[in-house]
Amino acid sequence: MAIGSKDLAITELDTFENERLAEELKKAKAELFNLRFQSATGQLESHGRVRQVKRDIARIYTVLRERELGIRATPAAAPVKAAKKSTKKTEQADAAADTKEA
To answer: pLDDT tens for residues 40-69?
Structure first.
């Protein structure tokens, strides 16, 4: 049985962009800080959560490093449609072609 967050499984991390991984890493580090603070003050209820968050952080670092080395593929970005530049000459040529066809 794997320890860690279900929403940060390795299959889920593969689908995230690098920016999203950086955001998840930042949130996980903030949560780990809060858990350590709670532990120091004696308010921590779930000691296993510290271990889960540490493993999530390690998974994120692993995915980022594997992408950097080319071991793991970066998910394909959504294709961005290039805006067609329209100039007066092309608009006039299109209009002329349309009138000739009619």
So the answer is: 999 999 999 999 999 999 999 999 999 999
Q: Coil, strand, or helix at residue 77?
A: coil
Q: How many domains does the chain have?
A: 1
* pLDDT category of residue 1 using cuts at 50, 70 and 90: very low
Domain of residue 64: give its range.
6-78
Q: Say if 13 falls within a structural domain.
A: yes
Q: Pick the closest to residue 5 from 74, 45, 60 (CA basis).
A: 60
pTM, full prediction: 0.69
Backbone φ and ψ of 75, nearest 5°: -60, 145
